[in-house]
Amino acid sequence: MLSSIAIDKVIGISQLAGAEIMKVYAQDFDVQTKADDSPLTIADKLSNEVIVTGLQALYPDIAFISEETKLTPYEERKKWNTFWLIDPLDGTKEFIKKNGEFTVNIALIENGTPVLGVVYVPVTGVTYFGHKEKGSFKIQNTQQQIHGGEHYTKKNKINVVGSRSHLSDETLQFVEQLKAEGKEVNFVSSGSSLKLCLVADGTADVYPRFGPTMEWDTAAAHAVALYAGRHVLSAVNKQPLLYNKENLLNPWFVVE
User: Fold this and answer.
1) Please, what's the largest Cα pairwise distance for the chain?
2) Which of 128, 145, 162 is the last residue before a domain boundary?
3) Is 92 found in the same domain as 27?
4) Count of domains in the chain?
5) What is the overall mean pLDDT for the chain?
6) Are residues 55 and 181 in the same domain?
């Protein structure tokens, strides 16, 4: 299935969705609250419409899960071997704050693992993508292959990236433990799925996430990190995150 996917067209869909987001970003907008108390704007909805319509036009036989579309019952979706996993606007809180740190996330999942992921940053125009057969790349004027480099435990100076909106006590303890081991730690704050991408391109060395995330929050950037030589591992059992679980809540994890 992966070989039939045109990555440039998926990137194009993410950019079209980003253009709709930026139209809203440039003006005043209302903020609603969803049942889980997370924020929702018209930009989320417009981006979702562009992505779902675009993917279904190109690949009508591939099912999808999106944060902004009613979830297919597990009894049906557990039979899916391949599906799209979409977050039309990851980092809505950052979008509302207008700090630019939000993304459009589109992932293709095969047998529980992301095999393709596109992360588009509307404010900067930067695109990250990871592809099982091609590797991971960052597009900013030119396209460059990225690789996270040496594992953080082998370094004396470590850049730890963390959430700008969700910094937890456990994350601070993770940093303090590194310092106790004699590491020189620099903490980098960032929003949305950009944190995983910063580990993928080597800007950061590790991203500990000891707080709630959903599968659509991580899938696309998981692919970018994975095919840049990094891993997204459960903090509980050190196994890779899996997708299309009955409960779409991720466990705590570390990107390393």
Assistant:
1) 54
2) 145
3) yes
4) 2
5) 95
6) no
Q: Are 128 and 166 members of one domain?
A: no
Look at residues 126, 145, 164 and tell me which one is the last residue of a structural domain: 145
Question: What is the C-alpha to C-alpha distance for residues 114 and 145, in angstroms, rounded to an integer?
Answer: 18
How far is it, in rounded angstroms, from Cα 169 to Cα 30?
32
Q: Which domain holds residue 99?
A: 2-145
In this predicted structure, the answer to whether residue 84 has a pLDDT above a threshold of 80 is yes
What is the 8-class DSSP label of residue 9? H
Please tell me the distance from the alpha carbon of residue 8 to that of residue 41, in angstroms, as a whole number: 28
Output the pLDDT for position 60: 97
- Asked whether residue 116 falls in the same domain as residue 225, the answer is no
Q: Is residue 165's pLDDT more than 70?
A: no
pLDDT tens digits for range 107-151: 999 999 999 999 999 999 999 999 999 999 999 999 999 999 999
**Are 47 and 94 members of one domain?**
yes
Task: Tell me the C-alpha to C-alpha distance, in Å, between residue 202 and each of 134, 160, 197.
Answer: 18, 11, 8
CA atoms within 13 A on the CB side of 205: 18
Tokens of 120: 């588009």
* Per-residue confidence band for 28, with pLDDT thresholds at 50, 70 and 90: confident
Counted residue by residue, the chain has a size of 256
Alpha helix positions (H), the chain: 7-25, 42-58, 74-77, 92-97, 169-180, 194-200, 215-226
Q: What is the Cα 15 distance to its own chain's centre?
A: 15
Residue 233's φ and ψ, nearest 5 degrees, are -115, 140
Look up the CATH number of the domain holding residue 33.
Answer: 3.30.540.10
Secondary structure (3-state) at 158: strand
Closest CA to 190 of 222, 159, 163: 163
Q: Do residues 191 and 124 lie in contact, with contact meaning Cβ atoms separated by under 8 Å?
A: no
